[in-house]
Structure formats: C-alpha cells, structure tokens
Amino acid sequence: MTLSEIKALDSAHFLGVFGERSPVCFVRGEGCTLYDQDGKAYTDLFAGIAVNALGYHHPAVTGALVAQAQTGVLHTSNLYYVAPQAELAALLCEHTFADRVFFANSGAEANEGAMKLARKYFYAQGSGRYKIVSADHSFHGRTLATVAATGHDYYQAPYRPLLPAGLSQVPYNDLDALRAAVDGETAAILLEPMQGEGGVTPADPAYLRAVRRLCDEEGILLILDEVQTGVCRTGTLYCHEQYGVTPDIMTSAKGLGCGFPIGAVLASEKVASAISVGDHGSTFGGNTLACAVSLSAMRYMIEHDFASAAREKGAYLKRALQAIQSDKVKEVRGMGLLLGIQLPSDFPAGALARRMLARGFVVGTASGNVLRIAPPLIISREEMDAFVSALAAELS
Ligand SMILES: *Cc1c(COP(=O)(O)O)cnc(C)c1O
Fold first, then answer.
1. How confident is the model over 231-270, as pLDDT tens digits?
2. Share of the chain above pLDDT 70, in %
3. What is the mean pLDDT of the chain?
4. Whose Cα sits closest to atom 15 in ligand 1?
5. Is residue 359 very low, low, confident or very high in pLDDT (cuts 50, 70, 90)?
6. Of 327, 330, 309, 292, residue with least CA distance to 375
7. Contact of 232 with 377, CB cutoff 8 Å
8. pLDDT digit string, tens, across residues 29-55
9. Nearest residue to 195 (alpha-carbon basis) of 144, 239, 236, 261
10. Beta carbons within 10 angstroms of residue 70's beta carbon
C-alpha cells in the first residue's frame, strides 16, 4: 500500500480522534533509525512518545518477544501463576520503594488502579477520605477517571460532568494552592514529578519535598505518575529518586515495555495491605507476553545502567540545544533524555516538527508551544550532534 492509500483508508474509517497525522508510515526500525515505505531513513528523537527506550530491533526486546511467542503461550489469564509476571514484580520491587506491584495495559489504566488503591486504603480504615487533588496542565490519561484528573479543559470539556466525584486540580508548583485544596476528605495528591504532555515542566525540588511533608502531616497518600518520566529516562530509574521524595503509590507505563503495551501500579506495603481479593483485576494486565518482554528489557536497562547513560546523554544534548544561536529557542527544560524546547508563540512547534520530519528527524511537541525530545535511550552522540545541527539550521 502507498502512503496515500493508507491515508485514504484511515480518513474514511478510523475514528477522527487523531485527525491528520504526520505524513509518514514507518515500516522498519533499527537502533534509533526508522525507515518509511520508500526506504527513507529518519533519526528518531521521540521514541513513539517516550516508549521505545531501547529503540528498534533491540535483541533484549525482539529476542524476548520471539522466544515467548515460540512457547505458544502468549496469555493464560491471571487465574494461573505467570512466571515472568512474578519475576517482573520482584525486579521492580527490588529496584524501587515499592513492596507490591499490579500490572495493567497502559498508563491510564495504571492511574485508574492507583486511584482505586488510594480510595480502598481509606475505605479499609473506615475513613471517608475520597478526594484526589492533581495539577493544572497535568496529563494522566484518557479514561473517565484519568480525564477527571487531567488538569486541562481541552480534555475535560466534552465529558462533563466529570466522573468520578472528588477530583480537582490546582496550579502546579504552587504549594499554597495545594494546601488550600486539601481537607479532611482528601485521600491522595496525584502529580507527575515532571509534567510531560503539559510542556516538559519539572517540579521544583522544594515543592515536591513540601508536598511529601504535607501528605505526611495530613495523612494523605502521595501518588506519583511516572508513566512518562520513569524507566531511566530522566536519569534515574524513576524521576522522584532525584528529588529525595518517595511516593506511597507510583504508576509506570510507556518505556516499561519498550514498545509492548504494559502499565504498572507500584505501592508500599502500607497501602498494598489494604487490598483484598476482588478489589481490582484485569484480563490482559500482566499477561505472559507483555511481562516477558518487559522483564527482559528492564533487566537489560538496569544491568547496563541506562539511568546514568540517560543522565549523561541528556546533559550533553541539553547543553548542545542551549548553545543553538537562535531567538526561537526561549528555554531548554527537562531532565535526562526528556527535554523541551520552549518556542515563541508565533512559531508553532507542530510546524517545526513537520519540517524536522522532512529533514529526516522525528520529534514531538508538548502543550505551551514546546518541541519535545524523548529519544530512545540508546541514542549516540553522533545522532544527537546530527539532530542539533539540523535543528540549528532549521531555526537559523
Ligand atoms: C502518556 C501518559 C499517560 C497515559 O498513558 P496511556 O498509556 O496513553 O494510557 C498518563 N500519564 C502520563 C504522565 C503520561 O505521559
């Protein structure tokens, strides 16, 4: 099929939620390089929205996927024991604050689980706490509950009245607003340690530490959404480690499966102990194939210290981007290999991303007119240098 044939089928039959897509269909990948149908090569600096942490055709991903498929067992359901699920849960507990893990299929589903866990924690104590406070410009997913937690009118407006009750948002990095929003009915505060979709905005260290203290003082649970910031991307396995702040519940997805859909809810024993049989579940969540791929990829990234690599490569890339001589670069923000370039309001990030695509570089955008860079963590200096030169040329 040609690209125009694919476009015609898509625009005739696919639900119009993604509108006109970037004019390319990638059919093959190797390392950080994607190839379209004509064999044109693109250097990927977006990794399928911060998902493909090991790039394309990585043996730790492809090998595990093929090997598991060869057993014939892709899925057995959670009625039975699932070996890679148990091993992946153990690996995540070994390397994070968490004592227990639940697997879902996406970031939104993981956040749903996190919110249910928080409510169940208080229900089990006979407490009426149920409210969840999140932040403006946050992004937590597209299900009804995660839309209600996503502080963005664009996502919420069509679905009012929002479900469930008790979800509200306050400005990010504003401790006074958060203090004013919590009360004796607040169960949890839900935050990204660095907002991704919202514009690549890190939490102020003093803010996040004060939020943790507020939670401790008021008996509120802290849920950190690390769906985008997790899995080595920001320079530590999970971003909150750099803040010296430990959540009670954390969610992970995107990079967790390196391209295979999987999400996870991680919790401390204090919270997890409130959960009993039947409180939550999933048919597909934690399935054999998803966990086999994620286990192999996570082992590889942990063994090869991808967190340090992301920190070093990210620092190098950030400096190079900051050195671009152009009045279009207002600010370069972010941590590790999740970076945002703030552009002026009259210079749309979307159009810039299209021009970079034509030059053979895949980049993303974030709200607030930000160019978002989230490459595979295996990216080389040469690939970063080539990208920075091309971007500098485009901005000159
Ligand atoms: C992408 C994202 C989600 C939603 O994940 P899906 O897999 O699309 O459901 C939730 N939270 C954050 C911070 C994200 O970046």
1. 999 999 999 999 999 999 999 999 999 999 999 999 999 9
2. 100
3. 98
4. 228
5. very high
6. 309
7. yes
8. 999 999 999 999 999 999 999 999 999
9. 239
10. 8
Give Cα 15 to chain centroid, integer Å. 24
Q: Atom of ligand 1 at shortest distance to CA of 143?
A: 9
Spell out the SS3 assignment of 49-78: HHCCCCCECCHHHHHHHHHHHHCCCCCCCC
DSSP E strands in the chain: the ranges are: 26-30, 33-36, 41-44, 100-104, 131-135, 167-170, 186-191, 194-195, 201-202, 221-225, 249-252, 263-267, 331-335, 338-342, 361-362, 364-366, 370-373
Active site residue 44: no
- The Cα–Cα gap between 157 and 148 comes to 10
DSSP 240-292: GGGGT---SEEEE-GGGGTTS--EEEEE-HHHHTT--TTSS--SSTT-HHHHH
Which tokens is 31 given?
């390392």
Which residues make Cβ contacts (< 8 Å) with residue 156, sequence separation at least 6? Answer: 147, 148, 150, 162
- Expressed in angstroms and rounded, the spacing between residue 109 Cα and the centre of ligand 1 is 9
Q: What is the pLDDT of residue 4?
A: 96
Q: What share of the chain is helix, strand, coil (3-state, %, to 5)?
A: 40, 20, 40
For ligand 1, the distance from its centroid to the CA atom of residue 38, given in whole angstroms, is: 32
Measured CA to CA, the distance from residue 85 to residue 367 in angstroms comes to 35
Q: Are residues 229 and 201 in contact, defined by beta-carbon separation less than 8 angstroms? A: no
pLDDT at 138: 98
Percent of the chain with pLDDT over 90: 99
Atom of ligand 1 nearest to the CA of 192: 13
pLDDT (0 to 100) of residue 329: 98
